[in-house]
Amino acid sequence: MNILRFFGAPALMLARTVRASARDGLSWHECLRQLHELGGRSAWLVTSGMAFFGAVMVTIADSQARKMTGNLPVVGPPYFELMVREFGPVMSALLTAARGGASHGAELSTMSVNEQVEALEMSAGDPHADLVAPRVVAGLLGVPLLCILGTMAATLSAVFTASWGFGVDGTAFMDARYVDGWDVVAGLVKAAGCGLYIPLAAAVAGLSARGGAEAVGEATTRGVVAACLGCLLIDFVVALGFQALRV
């Protein structure tokens, strides 16, 4: 996949969306509806998925701690830092991309193949302002909130697993000794970047769909794959940026 096309198409979609929204305005009612579709309906998946992820991480940490130090609580502070800065944002964003990206891609590609997008344009509407912009606003607001929710679920799951599964002080996994403001900023930047990219990637795939049911399936798959890969690339780029700043 061409990296310029991978990020170039969503960047062009973003530019057209901003221009159309500035010209036609933004429907806040539709933004709230999309926020519910993306955030509200993904909350259970993100919470339960991150809870399982937190439990698995502690189980692996226990295995490693027994080999290295024999003391599981000692890995609690670095676990919390890693969850706030890295795993909480990116894993929550991936779960959101799997569900939200599929939902956006399927809906927009169905509208495209049914010629509803063309009908919207013929009635003086703009699909970038009416369809894409509310989803972008919902992503920018919803994904960071889901990342915070997912990080809390993984941390609480770690506390419970360490306490009841391995009989150690689970509250060590909420020890914020190594967490500073830059860790929180890095996590929120990753979440906001993924929240911006997920709906744009789905819109690029969905609005370009042509044909019938097979095209809807292909566009949905393409949107989810692009959204997931984009989240991983954004995570890598932001991590490199903060590493370069040495924060």
Extract low-pLDDT stretches: none
Overall pLDDT, averaged?
Answer: 91
The SS-based structural class is mainly alpha
Q: In sequence order, what are the helices and strands, one letter per element?
A: HHHHHHHH
Strand content: under 5%
| Total beta strand runs | 0
Sum up the structure in keywords:
8 helices, mainly alpha, 247 residues
TL;DR of this structure?
By secondary structure, the protein is mainly alpha-helical. The chain has eight helices and no strands. It has helices at residues 3-24, 28-38, 43-68, 76-113, 116-122, 127-165, 181-207, 213-244.
Overview of this protein structure:
The two termini are 32 Å apart. The chain has eight helices and no strands. The protein has helices spanning 3-24, 28-38, 43-68, 76-113, 116-122, 127-165, 181-207, 213-244. The mean pLDDT is 91. It is 82% helix and 0% strand. It is elongated and about 70 Å long. Helix 2 packs parallel to helix 6, helix 4 runs antiparallel to helix 6 (127-165) and helix 4 runs antiparallel to helix 8. By secondary structure, it is an all-alpha fold.
Write the layout of secondary structure elements.
Layout: H1 3-24, H2 28-38, H3 43-68, H4 76-113, H5 116-122, H6 127-165, H7 181-207, H8 213-244
